[in-house]
Amino acid sequence: TMFVAVVWHGNRTVNADNERRLIGDENARLLAAQRRFLQDASHHLRTPITISLTHAELLARDLTGEQELKDIQLVIGEMTRLRRLSERLLVIAASEDPDFLRSEPVALDEFALEVIERWRLTAPRRWKLGQLDAATVLADRERLGLAVDALLENAVKFTSADEGIEVSVVSVAGQARLGVSDTGSGIPAEELTRVFDRFRTGNGDRRTRGT
């Protein structure tokens, strides 16, 4: 009886290990297929979006009617949003690659100044520089810019023209923190654990989905 029990348990363990391996292989295959889809979709979307956006901008220069101009500006706004979405999908697809980040020295205080000056021209908010410590870090400047732009885009989305958005750089004990804060509605405490989930939008706003 003991021998039969040991053999049965051994076979069960082997079968369980095989099942876990098959599930792991299938998950890896699905993830690889998902990444390929995101890369292909982003690449294929980029060209028609760029062409459509260029033609819409050319049309906007020639239109004189107020309603026509308003309509074409709406089209331009939506095409710009689609282009931004396709670019972010490509970033998501590439994020697992070993050479995704290409680090170089980045002066965070200068970087913050550049970012806030660029955004000040695009959105009417009370833009403010907070504490701005001199700090140089090793970072991928382009990827860091995309991350900060995503934070600022959310800050603009959830504030009005008379509300404030602040960018700061704080250096303490050899570590630097680049922060974005605003006076908007904020994030409920129960949502904080999910803020880094892909395509997650807070329950309080169903208007758009994020990446």
Structure report:
It is a single chain. This protein has 211 residues and is an alpha+beta fold. The chain is 57% helix and 15% strand. It has helices at residues 2-62, 66-94, 108-120, 141-157; strands spanning 104-107, 126-132, 136-139, 164-172, 175-182. It has a three-stranded mixed sheet with strand order 2-4-5. The radius of gyration is 24 Å and the shape is extended. It starts with a helix and ends in a 29-residue tail after the last strand. The mean pLDDT is 81.
Order of helices and strands: HHEHEEHEE
Beta-strand portion reads: 15-25%
Mean pLDDT metric: 81
Sheet of most strands: 3 strands, mixed
Describe this protein with a few key phrases.
211 residues, alpha+beta, two-stranded antiparallel ribbon, 57% helix
Secondary structure layout plus pairing:
Elements: H1 2-62, H2 66-94, E1 104-107, H3 108-120, E2 126-132, E3 136-139, H4 141-157, E4 164-172, E5 175-182
Parallel strand pairs: 2-4
Antiparallel strand pairs: 1-3, 4-5
Helix pairs in contact: 1-2
Describe the structure concisely.
Helices cover 57% and strands 15% of the residues. It has 211 residues and is α+β, with helices and mostly antiparallel strands. 8% of the residues are buried.
